[in-house]
Amino acid sequence: QVRLVESGGGEVQAGGSLRLSCATSGVIFSIVVMGWYRQAPGKQRELVATITSGVSTYVADSVKGRFTISREMPKNTVDLQMDNLKPEDTGVYYCNSRRIRSPHDEYWGQGTQVTVSS
Questions:
Q1: Burial class, 42, CB count within 10 angstroms (exposed 0-12 / middle 13-18 / buried 19+)
Q2: Within 10 Å of residue 14's Cβ, how many Cβ atoms?
Q3: What are residue 33's DSSP bridge partners?
Q4: Mean pLDDT across the chain, nearest whole number?
Q5: DSSP-assigned beta bridge partners for residue 47
Q6: For position 75, what pLDDT does the model report?
Q7: What does the pLDDT average to over 26-32?
C-alpha cells in the first residue's frame, strides 16, 4: 500500500524559503514518477515539479530557478526546496506518485498549506 505524507508547509514572507518533504512508504521508485502539485484558492491543481528514478527532473516555468525537487534516498522522501517565494506561490501543495506505464495508477498525499505574504 502506497502512502504519501507531506510536511514542511507554513507561512513565510515574500523572498523567503520553505522546504517541503513527502514521506513515502510502499513506493517503488524505479517504476513511478514522483511529483509535487499545488492548488491555489479558486484555481485548478497544477503541476510544479517531477522527478523520475531520482535522476530526471522537470520544473514548471513559473517556478524555474526558484524551486528544486530532489529525492533523499536514505529517508525515502521527495523534497521540494522553494526559494525566493512569491505571493502567487500560495496554495496547498500535494505529493503525487504515478506509475509510468499505468498513469491511472496514482496516489496523493493529504496536502500541506503554503502561504506567502507580501
A1: exposed
A2: 13
A3: 52, 98
A4: 95
A5: 37
A6: 87
A7: 92
Strands 10-13 and 112-117 turn out to be parallel
pLDDT digits (tens, 9 = 90+) for 58-116: 999 999 999 999 998 888 999 999 999 999 999 999 999 999 998 899 999 999 999 99
Q: Which of left, alpha, beta for 71 (phi over 0: left; psi -120 to 50: alpha)?
A: beta
Q: What is the distance between the alpha carbons of residues 112 and 24, in angstroms, rounded to a whole number?
A: 15
Q: Is 28 strand, coil or helix?
A: coil
Distances in whole angstroms, Cα of residue 59 to Cα of each of 47, 64, 118: 8, 6, 24
Give Cα separations from 70 to 13, 51, 77, 82, 117 (angstroms): 24, 7, 8, 11, 26
